[in-house]
Design a protein that fits this description.
- The protein is of the alpha+beta class.
- It folds into three domains: 7-81 and 159-350, Bira Bifunctional Protein, Domain 2 (BirA Bifunctional Protein, domain 2), CATH 3.30.930; 86-155, Herpes Virus-1, CATH 3.30.40; 373-458, Rossmann fold (3-Layer(aba) Sandwich), CATH 3.40.50.800.
- The protein contains 15 helices and 23 strands.
- A hairpin with a 2-residue loop joins β12 (280-288) and β13 (291-302).
- The structure holds glycyl-adenosine-5'-phosphate.
Length: 462
């Protein structure tokens, strides 16, 4: 039986091979915080670039913006985040562990140990949750005590201060989602681009949440990147657009990023679990070594956000449909993906164990591989030829140049991160203006003219 992949194997390989490092390690690591290293940054960029290519470059109805990380604090009042973006937390008075009350209640219902229909299931009402914890005999998962503190709401937004004072008048927030940038800039984008509905406004960028339980490596972190599209449509055309984005997301995960279909699932969120702003939502999950985890939420946000910002800002955010001579607030379909979570899925998807040789590899598809070409002169003396080939290839591809160690060791290093093409240079070939290209997947080799090398490789990275 083949060995089961565990998260710790992936974390080890990622740290050893420069994909992900512990955060500020020299000052003592803050648990569950990470930095992307050289290969991790390239991998993450490749995924973000494929997303931009699929959803911006190849479409005629979407545009990219880059809004500020710190928005006007009024944005987060209008969007409900200041009041409602909070977890209900309680402490076990015996062992001092801290828990999310709604999660413990969910677990008990899911385990079939309690009847959900007995309760009006409002996860935002702390008093109601307090009562449920007692009525349902909820136990501390660690010490089994039922002695909990009162539930307190803990807002997930990270606060900072603008201007010189540090009182409540200067409080601002680091954005907890990119999406509000698209809503706030909706009128500007619609006017300046002269777009007719339907059209999408997209962003790739950092978001921040003061997660109580970050963990599972880069899966849940306090600082992360999102790739979100707000797709504005005429009300009544929203269900059709929702279907289109479901298919787009499915294709992105299985055909563009090449995640194994068996490890990706799509399922509707139950009506009573929908966020307050959405009419319909689906979760897209990946099967990580620790279990299924969400990589995207696709939501029909209706006109909730534009409506909220219109009321709060007292500005007219409606759209004028000149053909039908009508003014209205568009509905919004939102595919919201987490870049770190897709990067982790790509790492898990690529992780391959070679039991025979007691080794493991990251077997990437050429299109997401962090390094596309490895250039190595067969003997060190030929370094100047190697450097020439490197500078020719690096015009088009991310390459690595390596003249240290024996040729066997260099191949082994290259295999560990599955560099799809390796160019070895020896003087006989070079004298005839040729080099040898070795394909990692098939281990086959081909002699290629130096003048045709970039085109030869470019054709093979699709
Ligand atoms: N604008 C909607 C929104 O933000 P979400 O489901 O809260 O929806 C979208 O977030 C995606 O962002 C998630 O599916 C996940 O991939 C990613 N994400 C959310 N919180 C995260 C965290 N703490 N760490 C890493 N990724 C996160």
């Amino acid at each position: 039986m083949s060995k089961k992949v565990e998260m710790k194997d992936i974390v080890n390989l990622c740290q050893n091979r420069g994909f992900v490092y512990p955060w500020s390690e020299i000052y003592g690591w803050l648990a569950n915080s990470w930095d992307y290293g050289p290969y991790g940054s390239l991998l993450k960029d490749n995924i973000a670039n494929l997303w931009k290519k699929e959803f911006i470059q190849k479409r005629t109805d979407t545009m990219l913006i880059d809004a500020s990380l710190i928005m006007n604090p009024k944005v987060w009042e209008a969007s409900w985040h200041v009041w409602g973006f909070a977890d209900p937390l309680m402490d076990c008075k015996e062992c001092k562990a801290r828990w999310r009350a709604d999660k413990l209640i969910d677990n008990k219902i899911e385990a079939g140990e309690s009847e959900p229909t007995n309760y009006a299931w409002d996860k935002t009402d702390s008093k109601e949750l307090d009562k449920m914890v007692i009525d349902m005999w909820i136990e501390c998962p660690d010490c089994k005590s039922k002695n909990f503190s009162e539930i307190k709401k803990f807002n997930l937004m990270l606060k900072t201060h603008l201007w010189v004072t540090e009182d409540s008048s200067s409080v601002a927030y680091l954005r907890p989602e990119t999406a509000q940038g698209q809503f706030v800039d909706f009128v500007n984008v619609a006017r300046s681009s002269r777009r007719k509905l339907p059209f999408g406004i997209a962003q790739v960028g950092k978001s921040f949440r003061n997660e109580i339980t970050p963990g599972n490596f880069i899966f849940r972190t306090r600082e992360f990147e999102q790739m979100e599209i707000e797709y504005f449509v005429t009300p009544g055309e929203d269900d059709e657009a929702f279907k289109m984005w479901k298919e787009n997301s499915q294709n992105f995960f299985t055909k563009t990023i090449w995640l194994n279909e068996e490890n990706v699932r799509f399922s509707p969120i139950k009506k009573d679990e929908l966020p307050h702003y959405s009419k319909e939502a689906w979760d897209f999950d990946y099967l990580y070594p620790f279990g299924w985890g969400e990589i995207e939420t696709l939501a029909n946000r209706t006109d909730y956000d534009l409506n909220a910002h219109m009321k709060a800002s007292k500005q007219n955010l409606s759209y004028f449909d000149a053909v039908n001579n009508k003014r209205f607030l568009p509905f919004v379909i939102e595919p919201a993906m987490g870049l770190g979570r897709i990067t982790l899925a790509a790492l898990c998807n690529a992780y391959t164990i070679d039991e025979e040789n007691d080794r493991s590899y990251l077997k990437f598809e050429p299109r997401i591989a962090p390094i596309k070409v490895w250039v190595l002169p067969v003997i060190k003396k030929l370094w100047h030829l190697g450097k020439e080939i490197y500078s020719q290839l690096s015009e088009d591809f991310v390459c690595e140049y390596d003249e240290v160690w024996s040729i066997g060791k260099r191949f082994a290093r290259m295999d560990e991160i599955w560099v799809p093409f390796c160019i070895s240079i020896d003087s006989t070939n070079y004298d005839e203006w040729n080099v040898t290209v070795r394909f990692r997947d098939s281990m086959e080799q081909e002699i290629v003219k130096i003048s045709e090398l970039n085109e030869f490789i470019g054709k093979r990275i699709k």
